[in-house]
Specification:
By secondary structure, the protein is an alpha+beta fold. It has helices at residues 10-21, 26-32, 34-42, 64-70, 73-81; strands at 99-103, 109-112, 116-117, 125-126, 135-140, 147-152, 158-163, 173-176, 181-185. It has a single domain (7-185), classed as Peptide methionine sulfoxide reductase (Metal Binding Protein, Guanine Nucleotide Exchange Factor, Chain A), CATH 2.170.150. Strands 3-4-8-7-6-5 form a six-stranded antiparallel sheet. It has a three-stranded antiparallel sheet with strand order 2-1-9, with no helix packed on it.
Length: 187
């Protein structure tokens, strides 16, 4: 239910408080527009992520039990139940090496280190996907606002959200959970 804090929201609320205590101030967040982005990244809904309505030829569809066998509990929660990791805690947030970012669930290349940048949001951020069509977008109306959820176009795994406050050349910020990704360094 929107408009009131529920027990399941406490970890996400704690994540925002942690972000505020770790050097961010409310005025900086409000002034830069990051508060809305941080709130949007900090909460997902509890529905299961579905693959695209028009499956790709290489679509990967598994039952929840099959996904649970190959994903950790955190990865399953984020990728299949649209969860969110706490801000500034993801393993790939500070990753600076050259390489590519693959879907943790199915291995599809989703992002490149060449489009990764420091947004200050607490999650890995990219200004465009590696290949058009491999990151699907869906309308998300949780938290009483309209935003755009992004998923892996091959397996339907929840990645995060995309916002229109990123750098040029696209003006987009793909705010992605580290647990949704597997980093493959350039050799």
């Amino acid at each position: 239910m929107h408009g009131r804090l529920e027990t399941r929201d406490l970890p996400r609320a704690y994540s925002l408080l942690t972000m505020l205590r770790s050097g961010f101030t409310l005025s900086i967040l409000l002034g830069s527009g990051l508060l809305a982005g941080a709130l949007a990244c900090a909460r997902g809904d509890a529905q299961t992520s579905q693959p695209p309505s028009k499956p790709r030829a290489d679509a990967i569809m598994k039952t929840d039990d099959e996904w649970k066998k190959i994903l950790s509990a955190e990865e399953f929660h984020i990728l299949r139940e649209k969860g969110t990791e706490r801000a500034f805690t993801g393993a790939l947030y500070k990753e600076k090496r050259e390489g590519k970012y693959l879907c943790r669930a199915c291995g599809l290349e989703l992002f490149s280190s060449q489009t990764k940048y420091e947004s200050g949001s607490g999650w890995p951020s990219f200004y465009k996907p590696a290949k058009e069509g491999d990151v699907a977008e869906h309308r998300d109306t949780t938290l009483g606002m309209v935003r755009t959820e992004v998923t892996c176009a091959r397996c339907g795994g929840h990645l995060g959200h995309v916002f229109e406050d990123g750098p040029q050349p696209t003006g987009l910020r793909y705010c992605i959970n580290s647990a949704s990704l597997k980093f493959e360094p350039k050799e």
